[in-house]
User: Fold NAD-dependent epimerase/dehydratase domain-containing protein from Paenibacillus allorhizoplanae.
Amino acid sequence: MSNQVHVIIGTGSLGKAVMRELKRRGVERIRMVNRSGRLSEAEEVEVAKGDASQLVDAVALCKDADVVYHCAHPGYTNWPSQFPGLTQGIMAGAAAAGAKLIYGDNLYMYGQANQPLTENLPDLATGKKGLTRAQMAEELLLAHQSGKVRVAIGRASDFYGPGVKQSSLGERVFGFALSGKPVSLLGNLDMPHTYTYIDDFASGLVTLAQEDRALGEVWHIPSAKTHTTRELLELIFDELGSTSKISTLSRPMVTMIGLFHPMLRELKEVLYEFEHPFILDHSKFEAAFGPQTTTPHVEAIKHTVQWYKEMMQEERAR
Assistant:
């Protein structure tokens, strides 16, 4: 694996976490791909500029790849119009290179389920973002079955960690708490909710890349113990050594504010995640690949708080 070429499409929080995990496992030939061709870690990896939604670019970006990681996504409000084309481009690039394609997915396609989420649940999403995710996963698996490209899909729950800002447990929790502002969350804080640490997500995706047994299937990436959101907040406040006021948005409030706020309007589709128990079952992964070591939330929160402190210090110094 150390001599293979690993191409990571998308240099957001997940792409960078995959890069860190590959380095941890001794991989030296890593190509990070984004539209700017710039990355702060550029001295340690190759950085390529291009638009993976365009076939010519995608093929060039994936040239010589042994593994391609799909960690890219368009803006949250643009998923239906832009995400399928991006995924099709990445799929074509991986196919042209003869590379494995590892897709970092989420859980929107299942819709509201009144049980822990397992890989054999049907796609019951009715909202446009869930339908988009379901469509892309289906196309990827069909491409694998037809022999076009070797694919494995890794799905994680709402994630948090270094570099993660646009998340339910992102800047409006960690950043706001460090700034002395009320933290802002959705729904019922006392419902059990699986949260995935971003480095655990990355570790799971790299494991899928190493295992030919993973190909052609969907896998739920192992996460640390499921807590309620309120319990996670208490762990965050313990790490900070202080508490913050907590602001929650109910469904009626999201509906009202969403009339003027595009992001909240989009989030209404997945509010059920925060109104009911939302528990990810990853037993299939461990049955296939053995017990997995996930990062305890206390440790993950410590790393996340430290990243936010450093990020905020850098912003103040500018």
Notes: The domain at 5-160+195-223+279-292 is CATH 3.40.50.720 (Rossmann fold).
